[in-house]
Design goal:
The complex is a heterodimer of chains A (325) and B (289). By secondary structure, chain A is of the alpha/beta class. Chain A contains 13 helices and 12 strands. Chain A has helices at residues 15-28, 45-48, 78-82, 107-111, 152-165, 182-188, 202-217, 236-245, 259-265, 270-273, 278-295, 297-304, 319-324; strands at 2-7, 33-38, 56-68, 88-91, 94-97, 118-132, 138-144, 171-176, 193-198, 222-226, 249-253, 315-317. The relative contact order of chain A is 0.18. By secondary structure, chain B is of the alpha/beta class. Chain B folds into 2 domains: 2-54 and 120-288, 3-Layer(aba) Sandwich (Rossmann fold), CATH 3.40.50.300; 64-110, Alpha-Beta Plaits. In chain B, 35% of the residues lie in helices and 27% in strands. Chain B has 11 helices and 11 strands. In chain B, helix 8 (231-239) links the parallel strand 10 (217-225) and strand 11. The chains are: A alpha/beta (325), B alpha/beta (289).
Amino acid sequence: MLEIAVASGKGGVGKSTIASSIAIVLARKGVDLVVVDADADAPNLHLIFGIEEWHIEEPYGEAMVAEIIQEKCTRCGRCMEECPYGAIDLVNGQYVINKILCEGCLTCTLVCPVKGAIVRHKLVSGYIRETPTQYGFPLISARLEPGRPNTGKIVSEEKERARAKAKQDSVIVVDSAAGIGCQVVSSLAGANMSILVVEPTPASFSDLKRVYVLTRHFMQPAALVINKYDINEDFLPQIKSFASDNNLEILGMIPYDENLPISMAHMKPMIEMFPDSPASKELVKIAEKVYDIVVNWRKWYIEHRPKQPMPYKPQIIRPEDFKQQ
Amino acid sequence: MAVTGGKGGTGKSFVATNLAVLLAEYYSLVLADLDVEAPNDHILLGAGLSEEEPVDIMFPFIDYSKCIKCRACSNVCDTGAMLTSREGLPYIIPRLCSGCKSCYFVCPTRAIYMGRRIIGKTFKTNVNFNGSSFTLVTGMLNEGEEHTPPVVLRAKRRALSLDADLYLVDTSAGTSNTVATAMDKSMLVIAVTEPTPLGLHDLDLILHVADSMDIPEKWVVINKSGIGPEEKHQEIAEKHNAEIVARIPYSKDVIDSYVKGTPIAVANPHSEISSIFRQLAEMVREVIG
């Protein structure tokens, strides 16, 4: 079993387009696949595959949210002082919990001097969905309730389900969220390799470097795809030298293509709807390289694994030092 | 006011930086880049980052001589960061700890002491264009850290601690409470979207968040207008009582300014897109006064 995560740091640079193309080409070549949409905040991969209905849709998680019982509240304000999320407001003399900001920890209930003045309720934090696709592989997707805490746990659960479905020689393709936070950490955790996507802009390059650090924390080999390479070719040398300095294989460079939004509007993958367009040809070429990597995994891994460990180190200040500050 | 969008890469920072530059002519303005996982406003503004301050959260230390192995700390730990051995001795996985202090408050023998853990940083930078200036406050999560809300909150509080007439917030992609924390108490939210089903899908979600937060004024900007159908965007906007206030065409000029670190409203003030931004800034002035 081989797990490939697609990540980029910056949003909208083409993760889902690239992940979906890789999945379709691997499936065409007979690879047994499970595809995971790990952007539970803004899940979009199903829209590229033209999926409108889910075979399975189950509630996931029991997030908690606190509520202040106004009749019992003595207006001492301890809860507002201690809430780590700024989720308690003083409105017209009453302390009120903002349900959207509350992460459901127990801090306010513990500091409240009145028994039963703050209670917690269970909430569904999201849903995990599954469906077969017309391309022969199943898609696992998640959807967090809008405004609920962003959690990597739902992504870990999706990946557990994917691993349970996968056979010994299956490939799992994980399309991660934008950013470098908990969902992305969960997307990369346990993956065998990452495919990082960048466009030739300073903003995307800055975010690429941040997500690259995460792949190094996991001692994971990574490869690079440069999307919309022709929108700013002056910037390419910087990206290429970053890639060669860090032993990142550049799998391909995709040109900007006006057909892409048309294929999205039809909810069809680009490489199916416009197979002859330059971007599609490059997408297929990239996916074929991924296929070669999968087939020759040991060799590729040995050549591309990071040589130096670069573990995550928490920056901790001891209580005695903290008091002195 | 806040600029958000749901889907990544729709142009949130592009809209926020251009509006900031234009509105700074009329208001003393603070722009808060609260996309702490991937902050880019300083890059789009060609500005360096200065006045760094660490973002620290509480981190529990345990005095094992006082611990009575009651497991109360691990029972209240919401994130699974506090584990106990078979004998009941607690230990902590730093990465998972959100610094909520529940363990500190629940411990019956006061065996837990408050240390700190640094999970990110904030910056404060002065930005100048054509004689008008504003302050950029940037939040940045450290690589490897998972808990974004404390960094968003700290950067937001740093921005609000500065004296200004107008606070303009640029949120991250997504629809979680990280985005909600950034938008909290905004009078006006501008959702930037694109004419694709993906943009549409996430526009619906983010407007849903704005609805549940009772944001009084909701606007939609369709960026990269012309690349696909937009009819359904109108329906979604109406469903949430939001107004489509601008359509920005896809243009090579945008990429040039984006790449060169000068907002298009400054770099190319006579372009069609700059005049769209000026109209949008005028609309903001009408609402805000």
